[in-house]
Amino acid sequence: MTLLNQKTIKIYLNDLRNYDFEKELIQDKVTEYFPQYFQSSLQFIKAPNVSVTRGKLVGLELSCIDTIVLFFDGVALWLVGKDQEAMSVDLDEIARTLKIHQKGVDPLLRALGAKESQLRVFDFTAGTLRDSIHMIKLGHRVTAFERHPVIFGLLQNGLERSSFRQMIHLNFGEAKNFTFEDSLRPDIVYYDPMFDGHEEKSAKSRKEMELFHQLFLFLPLEAEYLVDAKKLEEKITLDFALSLAKKRVIVKRTPKAESLKPPTFQMTTKAVRFDVYQL
Ligand SMILES: C[S@@+](CC[C@H](N)C(=O)[O-])C[C@H]1O[C@@H](n2cnc3c(N)ncnc32)[C@H](O)[C@@H]1O
Question: Is the pTM of this model over 0.85?
């Protein structure tokens, strides 16, 4: 999956005590979060007295050309967008705040199969890994895929800092570009493509998704760029998922979005709908 234009992305590094000595080490460390082909697009800039406070970057006014930048505070890597809004991937915090409903009522648990445990799940669309964590907490094993190089970098940093790092295997790219031996086929494929055209109706559109949206405008992938191309590639991905999974494919949509294909059944709540394809 190629980027439409490979612009430079600025990474601001906070004030390090012995900056000249540490800069190279830190730069190498941060560079390694990203896929190799993207590493030459990173531009590191020293940023003294910059920090993230209450979810906003402070100490640095971003110009309107830099609608998206990254900030590394020495530990966490932050994606920063409009109005200085900043996010990093904190998987332990996600795990703490996840609302997992009681057994049998949780819609994702139903979509996966309420009596199942230890399923092998491929999450085709890692994003923030929130849904992956949800599935791990329901007792399943997850391998995730992320195709956007910047999101992949944020996730590698998030995993490194979390207690989930041994539990999620994260791959860069699209599952359909990998080959899987029969013994490695998953029981479940989980697919949550972004922006199905109804997000504005869901009042709780999370801050992360808003920042991802800005990132996709700044550094778009070919498949995300044109609505028709996106629809076609979602259908191709679903067909691939149906040929790969052994038990079920689950597609997450907003409640009013069209299904990619008629599902076997649906689980709908106020905010989401799971289209489940039973194999
Ligand atoms: C809606 S978000 C997924 C949100 C995720 N379920 C969560 O819990 O945060 C979609 C993410 O999947 C990525 N993506 C979309 N289609 C993909 C594909 N075919 N292969 C790999 N990654 C994909 C996007 O770059 C984006 O990060």
Answer: yes
